[in-house]
């Protein structure tokens, strides 16, 4: 410990003894770095709680048997840093960021201020027994005439992951409304690809047993009409066809689809984007709305291009959000609606909240 202190002191002394030019450049770098992170917040938190309650499952196959299905507790471990100016309707109710905040305005194309803003947040979570990884990172620069934004989204619950970059021209109409148009590039797995299609029979049914055999499962007949099914490790997984088809096969299909999807390279999608943003705020009434529409997508002719899975036709991808608040009786009765919706490659994910507040005074 003492040695480390001596080394640190030596570094500081050497830094101060360096030529003034180097110190000047170093100071300029520190000033710029401080300017970038000024008003930003670094945070980390662990949150947890009970999941769904235990469930008793009864069986009478070999006499009365009871099996209790337990779901482990929910938790989340979150780390992040954010520099996003709060809009007029946003209230920091908590003293500290704990990683559970859900600010719908983070998805807006334009923030409260012009200039540079960012968010980097990662989360390891378990929800109702499902292990999830969630991430949201973005860099955004807003100018009166243009918008530049890069974003990475990974939502384990919605099973969506992509990287997106956009460059847009911005046209302002007054101080509240603006429109934008430009190009967007998205890097993601080839959504639309279905690994099970090659296993479909002419009548539309799935040749699932043959698929399971290819994946290493085996079937054994006892000669008396009974059948047993074993996994690739040789473990018995089903003693009859009902369990095989109802329990084992769904898991086989799920594992196979995930494995085949993970084999594929990411695809790059170029699209045209058109958007708008509207923001009005007073203490008694506010409305913030934004939307993005991608009506045209370049077809590069790739084997796993989404055009191929969409009958070689164009499609509409879009996202948007709405935040509305109105005090019918100032400081007493108010209504609110908040939500966002996304639809990319025929996959959608959304959040919303609505209700009222009444304060007795």
List keywords for this structure.
361 residues; Porin; 12-stranded antiparallel sheet; 46% strand
Q: What can you see in these coordinates?
A:
- With 361 residues, the chain is α+β, with helices and mostly antiparallel strands.
- The chain folds into three domains: 2-37, no CATH class; 41-192 and 265-358, Porin (Beta Barrel); 195-263, no CATH class.
- It is 19% helix and 46% strand.
- The protein is globular, with a radius of gyration of 28 Å.
In terms of topology, how is this protein built?
Blueprint: H1 2-16, H2 20-37, E1 41-49, E2 55-59, E3 65-69, E4 74-83, E5 115-127, E6 130-142, E7 146-155, E8 160-173, E9 177-188, H3 208-214, E10 218-221, E11 227-230, E12 236-238, H4 241-263, E13 267-281, E14 285-297, H5 306-309, E15 317-329, E16 333-344, E17 347-358
Antiparallel strand pairs: 1-4, 2-3, 4-5, 5-6, 6-7, 7-8, 8-9, 9-13, 10-11, 11-12, 13-14, 14-15, 15-16, 16-17
């Amino acid at each position: 410990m003492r040695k480390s202190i001596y080394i640190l002191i030596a570094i500081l002394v050497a830094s101060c003894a360096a030529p003034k030019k180097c110190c000047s450049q170093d100071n300029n770098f520190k000033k710029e770095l401080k300017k970038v992170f000024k008003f930003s917040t670094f945070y980390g938190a662990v949150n947890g709680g009970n999941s769904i309650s235990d469930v008793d499952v009864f069986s009478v196959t070999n006499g009365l048997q009871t099996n209790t299905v337990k779901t482990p507790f929910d938790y989340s471990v979150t780390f992040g840093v954010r520099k996003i100016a709060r809009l007029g309707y946003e209230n920091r109710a908590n003293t500290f960021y704990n990683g559970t905040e859900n600010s719908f305005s983070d998805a807006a194309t334009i923030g409260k201020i012009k200039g540079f803003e960012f968010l980097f947040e990662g989360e390891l979570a378990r929800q109702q027994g499902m292990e999830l990884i969630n991430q949201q990172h973005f860099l955004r620069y807003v100018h009166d005439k243009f918008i530049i934004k890069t974003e990475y989204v990974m939502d384990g619950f919605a099973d969506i992951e992509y990287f997106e970059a956009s460059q847009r021209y911005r046209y302002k109409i007054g101080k509240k409304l603006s429109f934008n148009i430009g190009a967007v590039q998205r890097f993601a797995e080839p959504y639309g690809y279905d690994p099970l299609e090659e296993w479909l029979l002419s009548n539309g049914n799935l040749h699932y047993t043959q698929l399971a055999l290819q994946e290493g499962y085996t079937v054994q007949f006892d000669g008396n009409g009974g059948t047993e099914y074993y996994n690739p490790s040789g473990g018995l997984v089903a003693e009859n066809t009902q369990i095989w088809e109802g329990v084992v096969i769904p898991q086989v299909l799920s594992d196979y689809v995930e494995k085949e999807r993970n084999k594929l390279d990411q695809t790059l999608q170029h699209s045209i984007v058109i958007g708008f943003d509207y923001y009005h705020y007073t203490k008694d009434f506010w409305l913030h709305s934004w939307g993005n529409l991608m009506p045209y997508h370049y077809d590069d002719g790739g084997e796993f291009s989404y055009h191929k899975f969409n009958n070689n036709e164009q499609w509409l991808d879009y996202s948007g959000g709405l935040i509305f608040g109105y005090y019918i009786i100032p400081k007493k009765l108010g209504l609110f609606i908040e939500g966002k919706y996304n639809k990319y490659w025929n996959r959608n994910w959304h959040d919303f909240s609505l209700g009222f507040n009444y304060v007795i005074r």
